[in-house]
Amino acid sequence: MARQQLIQFFQSTGLMSAAQAADIAAGFAPRQLARHEDLLRAGRISDEYFFLDSGIVRAFALDAAGQEVTTGLYAGGQVALEVSSFFNRTPSPETLQALTDCQGWSITYAQLNGLFHARPEFREFGRSLLVRELMRLKTRLLGLAIDSAAVRYEALRQASPELLQRVPLKYLASYLGVTDSSLSRLRAAAAKGAAEAS
Amino acid sequence: MARQQLIQFFQSTGLMSAAQAADIAAGFAPRQLARHEDLLRAGRISDEYFFLDSGIVRAFALDAAGQEVTTGLYAGGQVALEVSSFFNRTPSPETLQALTDCQGWSITYAQLNGLFHARPEFREFGRSLLVRELMRLKTRLLGLAIDSAAVRYEALRQASPELLQRVPLKYLASYLGVTDSSLSRLRAAAAKGAAEAS
DNA sequence: TTGATTTCTTGCCATTTGGCAAGGGCCGGA
DNA sequence: TCCGGCCCTTGCCAAATGGCAAGAAATCAA
After folding, report:
1. pLDDT, tens digit, for every residue of B44-89?
2. Which CATH number fits domain A4-135: 3.40.50.740, 1.10.443.10, 2.60.120.10, 3.40.50.80?
3. Which residue ranges traverse the bilayer (chains A, B) (predicted)?
4. Which nucleotides of C are covered by protein (CB under 7 A)?
5. Engineered SS bond to B145: which of A125, A177, B18, B40, CB 3.0-4.6 Å?
6. A142 touches chain B (CB under 8 A)
7. In sequence order, what are the beta bridge partners of A51?
């Protein structure tokens, strides 16, 4: 129940003191999600800024054929949010869904704006988060453009090994931009390579 | 020389009045770029928020093999900016280069922050720009993940036909995530399809 | 203008990835 | 316990894309 991780998150950019972080964190309410529960449905307007303590949230959109495409995977310590819907008050193009039971902290748009108004240092933090998210997307984009599927898989394994264990292969596949059978083959090849290396 | 386009840009989100937009635009200085001139070099910290009136700016990074990869293309009416470097005051991972002679308006980080401080409506505008940029990246990411190269090419043709005419094929190719010979073939196939349709 | 450079196209073939379908294993509910 | 439904793997072949290199075409600079 403690807001430890949330407070630490606010301090992570070095833009505020421990006391400030604790004050801001006090404005957040505890929030649970059951496995398979939706945090946000496509078409709705997001009104919940959700920081994830533990568990995994998946974001997905539908392609032209109506197939789900995983666009984001969030684990503990991250904010699971459809940024454009939340900040622009527009219908979300994606659904956010709990892949496992989740615990975290949330705050509404009005409350967040109140904090932004009252606390310039938190405003700075918010901007820096947006910028960080932008960099992450850029990095993923570059990877999709220039790396082979095998390299992208390996990069994800390095960056977030826990996701590979806990997220069903079909979701990982569309997140990486490959089909599930291709990913299965990649995984087999990687395992073979690792075995030979030992 | 008129700041018309800049003023219109500020008003485009509906977050401020004409008078406010004109006031803010007055803080920007005219800025020219000669063809092939760098607006920002990789490794440097960006200190110029640059709005493009006319011309084309290309952003590129280097891949592991030292090859240039085009990560962004900006035409008139857009802001050509490496967001993370400018806002986080960190070395830029990319170079921004004028593909043609360019005219526009620019402002420094300190000046921009001054405006953000003095004018809450401009702060809102800045946030909404970041969010918009994020959505654009998400859309490109989704396209790379699920669409074929032919579809991506067609989408770019629909969205920004002027780029296809004025940007060398090799830059378009890496922007679209294909090799230049593949793009050349795609273009040939598209032309053939169009001819048959007529 | 003229020569040099860049840009674009195209052929040939290799590699990567997709599509489809069958089958095995695992897990949860009745 | 047993059944039904995911989840994952794998074989076969097709389609998409890349790599390389040669040459034509356009562009640039002197």
Report:
1. 999 999 999 999 999 999 998 889 999 999 999 999 999 999 999 9
2. 2.60.120.10
3. none
4. 6-11, 16-21
5. A177
6. yes
7. A79, A105
C-alpha distance from B61 to closest chain A C-alpha (Å): 9
Q: Do B145 and A144 touch (CB under 8 A)?
A: yes
Q: Match 């920002």 to its residue by tokens.
A: B40
| Closest chain B residue by Cα to residue A86 | B131
φ/ψ of residue B16, rounded to 5: -150, 165
Q: Where are the domains of chain B?
A: 4-119
* Burial (Cβ within 10 Å: 0-12, 13-18, ≥19) of residue A108: middle
Q: CB A142 to CB B87 under 8 A? A: no
Angle at which helix A109-118 crosses helix A120-146, to 10 degrees, equals 120
How many CB pairs below 8 Å do chains A and B form together?
A: 81
Partners of B92 on chain A (C-beta within 8 Å) are: none
Closest Cα in chain A, distance from residue B135 (Å): 7
* Residue among B63, B83, B141 minimizing CB distance to A140: B141
Tens of pLDDT along A95-148? 999 999 999 999 999 999 999 999 999 999 999 999 999 999 999 999 999 999
Record the pTM.
Answer: 0.93
Q: How far apart are CA A181 and CA B161, in angstroms?
A: 36
CA distance A197 to B17: 65
Say how far apart CA B52 and CA B37 lie, in whole Å: 14
In a 10 Å sphere around its CB, with 0-12 CB exposed, 13-18 middle and 19+ buried, how is residue B60 labelled?
Answer: buried
Q: Any idea which residue has 């803010």 for tokens?
A: B24
Q: CB-based burial of residue A103 (10 Å sphere; 0-12 exposed, 13-18 middle, 19+ buried)?
A: middle
